[in-house]
Amino acid sequence: RGSLCKQHCGLINTPLGNLGCHLHGPRGLPAQCPPLDEGCESCLGRTTLTAENLVEATKLSNNYKFGFKKWKGHVTERPWEDRSEIVKELYADLTAVRGSTGPTVTFGNVLYLLLFGWWLSFLYVVVAAIMFLTVVAAPYGRLCWHLAGYFLWPFGKAIQAVEVPKPHGDETSALLGGPAPGCWRPRCWAGAGPVQRRVGVAAWLCLGYPVLALAHGLVCVAAWLLVVAIPVAKLSARSATHLLLLPPERLRVQQLRKMEAPPEGEVVLCCAQALNPYYYKYSVGGINVFAVNLLPLVLVTLALGYADAHNRLAGSAVKFSLALLAIVPLSYYIGMAIASISAQSNFAVGAVVNATFGSITELTFYITALIKGSREGNRCYAEIVKSALTGTLVGCVLFVPGLCMVIGGIRHQEQRFNSRSAGVSSALLFLSVGGVFAPTLFAKVYGRLVCGECHNVSQSQLGHYLCHNCHFDLMGSNGTLYHSHVQPLVHTVSLLLPAAYLVGLCFTLKTHTHIYDVHVSGCHAPGHHHSAVVHWSRWRALVILLLSTLCMSACADLATEHISPILANSTVSQYFIGVTVLAMAPELPEIVNGIQFALQNNLSLSIEIGNCIAVQVCMLQIPVLVLFTIFYPTNFTLVFSDLHVYASMFSVVLINYIFMDGKCDYFQGTVLVMVYFILLAVYFFAPSPSGC
């Protein structure tokens, strides 16, 4: 079917897949491409995605490729005319006067008054009094007096900078403009000499401006961290850097309803609302605002972790929590860097970067934990790593698709996805899970059951015994079973799983690309063809990728360094800590991407996110850990507990049942999420693994 449609439409095969419509014009002339209901789309029946430029087209195409990290955000700057009015409002300048667009008494504005307005206004009154006492800086005192009323309630008002004509005698005020008969000479600089002006400015810069700039800086930081209050942060930043440095005689405060149209002079500040819930979409240099806000947390974590080695400033629990939180923004930067490099490179480079750094977050933590456990001779670290691996597998198979189905189902009654591509991922899941747990099943069959404590409950020699702390011993008979049978099986599986991963890449990217039915079109709105302006160049993305990886290694080292007291003093099972906190914290950016795809009715990518992570856990991460133990002996063996085996097997069977019909709704997502929480409850009440 695919070849016939290509002959019918004459599509051009490019490194991006099918890009451009040759039947209606050459690639690069988007105005000549056909509508979606004609030509190519009606024949192929594919999912058609429109890209602004070639780089975005490559990124969109990579999202549907097996083995490539799915990324929701843009790697290039979007054309301003393509953005929605809501997004344009987020980036609007505070100098634009929009008039009275609605009531000023809103919840957000009242909250501003309670959090910032009252004390900021009081501070301006105090500074105004100090400026009046200096006499020479009295014009700044009048300015602060007027600004006290403005910052108490800045909504529905505007601050203008007007050109004041040279005064004739003492009849005109130079502070706010307009006639001011009887003006006290030191309060207005209408006839002041240059020396008096310089002394007044010096008094302002020494006594008034530093205090107000510091206050506005605190407001700016606090409002920026709240995200929804970024308009207040912009207001404070512009006040400290621009408004308070202007000559006071040029500034005046006016009500918007009384302002001339067009306004006289330059509008310096005009804020209509204090809160905007859509600021979660705001980005700085292509980086989401949440990732920007969490970046200082990484620096604080590293400084506190390595400078306070003896836990004098903070305990192990605080440092462990900070290290895990710091992993979240680093995972975002790594994902953004990988997507940027892949979108600007050819297929081979993108595949290598994704395979090398796609699992670097998890592998860094696992390897660091295994090294620490080997040095301390503590088997508990190896069990924690196994729990984290299982938790990632179960969470990405159940929780991530289920949560995306629930949230997407709230907006869309029924969502459909590509069952063929989901079937390929399901087959790889079955293969990977079967291969990973093959040594475990082998050990259960041929291993020797050893119990720590046994008690005769029937008080007879041939009675019943109650045993505790039982496990299968693989090292009996001088380790013959493990070294001669189990270890060769582990090495064989570790070679076969990456080979199966490569076969899956070849199947989905080369021989059977039509399974995904994706058509990335360079078509754009007529008359609007834009060149790519990338947020991060290849070299910049590479530097950020390497720096983020180094910081990730340091945070993983701190997390494993301070996890010991938590494991020793925890009242819950170590299994639960591994399958929840350690497994899902690095995957938070992926979960957010999946939710955003589901909200746009693109459930295929939401499901592929979870499946690809689960497949990479089994086919890449575990073989790498086995390879690492060959060169650096640790306590890690590819033999899992029964609980891990049953949870993983049941999860894979359930998700394959959901994938059968190629459609889903919020009810099926709820089932997956509930099953995930049931498994978490089992892990919560399970006893800790032996050796912990």
UniProtKB/TrEMBL annotation:
It is found in: Endomembrane system. Keywords: Antiport, Calcium, Calcium transport, Ion transport, Membrane, Phosphoprotein, Transmembrane, Transmembrane helix, Transport. GO terms for cellular component: endomembrane system; vacuolar membrane. The chain crosses the membrane at residues 110-138, 207-233, 287-307, 313-335, 347-368, 388-410, 422-442, 489-509, 609-631, 643-659, 666-686. InterPro entries: CaH_exchang, NaCa_Exmemb, NCX_ion-bd_dom_sf, YccF. Residues 318-437, 541-683 form the Sodium/calcium exchanger membrane region domain. One of its GO terms (biological process) is intracellular calcium ion homeostasis. Gene3D superfamilies: NCX, central ion-binding region. Residues 107-157 form the Inner membrane component domain. It is a multi-pass membrane protein. One of its GO terms (molecular function) is calcium:proton antiporter activity. PANTHER family: VACUOLAR CALCIUM ION TRANSPORTER (PTHR31503), VNX1 PROTEIN (PTHR31503:SF10). This is VNX1 protein. It comes from Rhinopomastus cyanomelas. The gene is Vnx1.
